[in-house]
Amino acid sequence: MKDNNQAPLRLLPAPDAATVELLYRNFGDVLIPLAKLREQYFRYLNEQTFVAEIISGRIQLPITTLDNSRKATKFAHIRHVAALIDIRAYKADEELARPQGDIQNKDD
């Protein structure tokens, strides 16, 4: 029996416990207000651009609120932020490990 209206299950890799702990020390809560998150990690984006990047999926971060009000404060869960950081770090490691091929030594 298949329910076609059900959203597909998305499981992110579990974030590193150390990343979660450091974020908790920095923000002091499991829900991080988007404004604080933007100030800390996305300073180069203004508020509207930051939200647009999240909505478009360029910044892959689920957003939540604690009530259904349109003006409710928007939050990111600490585990989602930690997973985003860990995933980006992993991708950076993979890119560094790739052979550079066409890049020439600047000392030549």
UniProtKB/TrEMBL annotation:
InterPro entries: Tscrpt_reg_PrtN. It comes from the Bacteria. This is Transcriptional regulator. It comes from Pseudomonas saxonica.
